[in-house]
Amino acid sequence: MSDLIGYVYDDIPLPQKPVMITFDDGHYNNLGYAVPLLKKYHMKAVISIVGKYTDTFSETDEANLNYSYLRWKDIIALMNSGTIEFQNHTYNLHSTSNGRIGCSKKSYEATETYTNILSTDILALQQKFQENTSYTPTTFTYPFGSISKASFPIIKNLGFKASLSCTSGVNTITKDPNCLYCLKRNNRPNGISTQNFFKKLLK
Length: 203
Hints:
203 residues; alpha/beta; TIM Barrel; three-stranded parallel beta sheet; 39% helix
């Protein structure tokens, strides 16, 4: 994301036909399975973590490929390796609890209430990043891809220069900073090979 933001804001060149690899939630198996492949092929990726998950597994210090999430010490090591860039996926709104899907706005919810809830949660993870890594994420990744229009000014006002959705498609990037919000991504589901996944995209 830093490369993409640099292109839009500072005219820093991008490679021809650039592709971005992203992972959501911060599963520990990203370290076990994805990182070795990224290093093998000299590639990098973006991982958007859920702060609560990272805090929980940092406290228990569990590191199981089947169910754990990245700990702060894992995140620091991956940042130092230059392989992974980390972004904000909320501190604790990656759920469907209390009638809210991710960070969506409830139909009856006052804008002021929604703004306070969303801002407090997102800033909590920004603060955690600062405390543990001295780094501040520049991109917000919507949980479940659930997007409320009411969130747009909030995300911008919190200082994020970009946001990631779960809408499928290819992005057209211009020099207008607004093109960096709600970027589309193509999600590879379970049960389909890499080869067939890319064949489907090329149709």
